[in-house]
Every structure is written in C-alpha cells, then in structure tokens.
C-alpha cells in the first residue's frame, strides 16, 4: 500500500515537472533567452499603439519616408516572387504579345477585337472597384455608394424617362441618351432594369469576393505554419475563441455567432454570411482560414453570395428607391416640410428636370450646360472620399514599414 501511494506521488511529481518544463519551454526563445509572455504581449500592444500614430496629419515626414521605403520593399518582394514564377510570367508575356499583335493587325477580326476590348475593360473596371471596396490595403473605398449605386440609379431614371433601355452599350456614363424610337408607356418593368445592369453589378460583386481572400490566406498560412501574425483582427479572433464561454457584449456575441455559423454549417453558412450586407464578413474569412476550410468551398460560397444573391438584393433596393413614382413622392414629401420644404424642393426639381433634358437632347460641342449644386456637391464628396482613401493607403503602408522595424528590433533583442 505504501509503495502504491509512493508511486502515485512520483507520478504527480513527474506530471508537475512536465508542466513546469512545458511552461519554461514556452518562455524560452533563441539562444536560451527567457521572454515572459505577458511582457511580450505588453510590448506588442505598445508597438501597435505607436504605429497608429504614424499618419500624415500627425507625422507627415516620417509617414512619407516609411511609405516610400515600404513601397520599395514591396516591389523587391514582388520582383523576387515573379522571378521564382518566371515560367508563368513568360507564358503571360507570350499571350500578351499575341493579343497585342491581333489588336494592331488590320483585318476582319477587328470588329470582334473591339467588342472584346470594350467588354473586358468594362468588366475589369467594375471588378477593380469591387476589390477596392472590400480590401483597400486595410481601408476601404465605398465604391457602391460612390459608383455602382449612382450608376444603377441613373439607368433606372433613364429607363422610366425613355420608356426603353436601348441606350448605348457600356461604358457609361459617356452618354445615356434616349433612343430615337419612342418606347411604349409602361413597358419598363423591374426585371428589365435588373437585366440592363446585371453585368456591371455582378462584376462588382465578384470583385468584392476577391477582396475577401487576404484574411483567409493570412489565417490559413498562420495555422499551417504555427506562427502568430501580429494582426489585430487575427489576434481578436483567437482571443474570442479563448473566451467564447464568457459573458460578452452584443458586438462580441455577433462575431461569435458568425464564427459558429461558418464553422458548423460550412458552405451554406459562408453563403448566408456573404449574401447579406455584413460588416463582419472579414471574420468569416479568418474563421475559414483558421479551420482550414478548402479554398473553393470558401471562395465559391463567397462568390455566389456576393456576386449573385447580395447584388440582386442591392440592385432591387436602388431600383425601387429611384423608380419614377417613388422619386416623385419623395420630392413631394420634401416640399411638404414646413418653412424650409419649398426652398429645398426647388433644386431637386431643377436637377431632375435637367437630367430629363439631357436624356432627350445631345449636348452641342460649343454649348456649356449649367451645373446643378447637387451635382457639384456629389462630385466634391467623391473627390474627398477618394483623397481620404489614398491617404489611408499611404498611412497603412507606412505603419506596415514601422511594424517591420519593430519586429527587427525585437528579434535583435532576443538574440543578444
């Protein structure tokens, strides 16, 4: 009996020793140096706070310097990657040379070349705007509100005014002019307008799906390599997994619900998250990458959800909102506002009337058309948002270079 009790104590002691050795190994780094995990977490937090101060309006010179240095580093990395894949690069260059030759050589094929060029540039334009909307190097340009939404609205107004959708083929907005033959009153339906803008809307949705890939690849690479990337969203995701059972606020519960839906339901869970306007979809990408969901399962569900389901929901909302009778009711309601209603209603009516005239008359080369203040405000809003987007990219790249410096200093300290 005493021997049995002694063996139990020895086993408990061995387990304690193993646990202590495991904790010690977690604290040990290169060359036997010991780094307390709590100090390391505190160090990362201080470094992140320091990086957040590197913006143009606070430290313009340092921000610009780091931005140019980060640009050079990225160019070097991309050049090395292209060199390692020089076979694929040469294939693309050969294909590009063949297409360029076909583009410039005269012949009967030129009509098809011009058609393909027009469609390709039009699709690439909207795919690019979709990518900018969802990735944006850590920021985001709201291209639906700035470009696609107004485009669908203008097509909707033109369709009801012209009683036809036979305006010039894309690219808009060179000129949306009503066709010479007059359409039949009441011939425009919701489905007719949806079909007219389907290509550009689906291309924009496909671009937003492509823009969701970086969080997926980042989390997948981190899980496969066992590394812990210094990424705020990924660290927040891991912290959420650790404290999943604890009491949380509404935002944390919403994030946890998205993570559980994607993890447990799989393809249809990803499809559900991608099919509705969802600001937390980045978390779905991180979740899929962390749990090693197959690429085509994630991207296929995201592409179907964003480019087909979600885009039709958004198109329906814009088309219904800017249909002829809804717009007239909205303008009438503006005029019913006491005291300020008529004065605010007047520029809206003038703007709509000017748009109707533009649809029926081609602008003369020497005639300068008056500019409505609503158009002027919208143009300035677009310029401000684009400038902010560019400044955000500069700051984001500068902070990325500052992160490189901080990681280099930390690795040097570990090796001392």
Automatic annotation (TrEMBL):
Record-annotated membrane-spanning stretches: 87-105, 125-148, 261-277, 283-304, 316-337, 381-402
Gene (name only): VMP1
Name of the protein in question: Vacuole membrane protein 1 isoform X1
Keyword entries, A-Z: Membrane, Transmembrane, Transmembrane helix
Organism: Microcaecilia unicolor
Coiled coil: none
């Amino acid at each position: 009996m005493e021997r049995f009790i002694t063996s139990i104590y020895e086993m408990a002691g061995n387990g304690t020793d193993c646990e202590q050795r495991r904790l010690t190994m977690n604290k040990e780094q290169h060359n036997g140096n010991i780094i307390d995990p709590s100090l390391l977490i505190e160090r990362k937090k201080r470094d992140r706070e320091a990086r957040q101060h590197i913006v143009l309006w606070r430290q313009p010179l340092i921000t610009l310097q780091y931005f140019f240095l980060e640009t050079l580093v990225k160019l070097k990395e991309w050049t090395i990657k292209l060199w390692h894949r020089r076979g694929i690069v040469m294939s693309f260059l050969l294909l590009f040379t063949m297409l360029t030759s076909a583009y410039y050589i005269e012949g009967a094929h030129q009509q098809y070349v011009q058609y393909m060029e027009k469609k390709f540039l039009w699709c690439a334009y909207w795919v690019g705007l979709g990518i900018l909307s969802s990735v944006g190097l850590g920021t985001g340009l709201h291209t639906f509100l700035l470009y696609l939404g107004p485009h669908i609205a203008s097509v909707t107004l033109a369709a009801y005014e012209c009683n036809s959708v036979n305006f010039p083929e894309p690219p808009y907005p060179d000129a949306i002019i009503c066709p010479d033959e007059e359409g039949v009153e009441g011939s425009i339906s919701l489905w007719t307008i949806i079909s007219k803008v389907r290509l550009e809307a689906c291309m924009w949705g496909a671009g937003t799906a492509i823009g969701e890939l970086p969080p997926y690849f980042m989390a997948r690479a981190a899980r496969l390599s066992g590394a812990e990337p210094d990424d705020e969203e990924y660290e927040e995701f891991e912290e959420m997994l650790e404290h999943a059972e604890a009491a949380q606020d509404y935002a944390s519960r919403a994030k946890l619900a998205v993570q559980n839906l994607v993890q447990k339901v799989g393809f249809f869970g990803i499809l559900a998250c991608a099919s509705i306007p969802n600001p937390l979809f980045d978390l779905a990408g991180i979740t899929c990458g962390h749990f090693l969901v197959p690429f085509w399962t994630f991207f296929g569900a995201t592409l179907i959800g964003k480019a087909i389901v979600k885009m039709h929901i958004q198109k329906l909302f814009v088309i219904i909102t800017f249909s002829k009778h809804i717009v007239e009711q909205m303008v009438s309601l503006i005029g019913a506002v006491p005291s300020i209603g008529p004065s605010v209603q007047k520029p809206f009516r003038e703007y709509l009337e000017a748009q109707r005239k533009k649809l029926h008359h081609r602008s003369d080369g020497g005639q300068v058309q008056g500019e409505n203040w609503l158009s002027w405000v919208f143009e300035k809003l677009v310029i401000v948002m684009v400038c902010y987007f560019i400044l955000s990219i500069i700051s984001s790249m500068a902070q990325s270079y500052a992160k490189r410096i901080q990681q280099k200093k930390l690795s040097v300290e570990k090796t001392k």
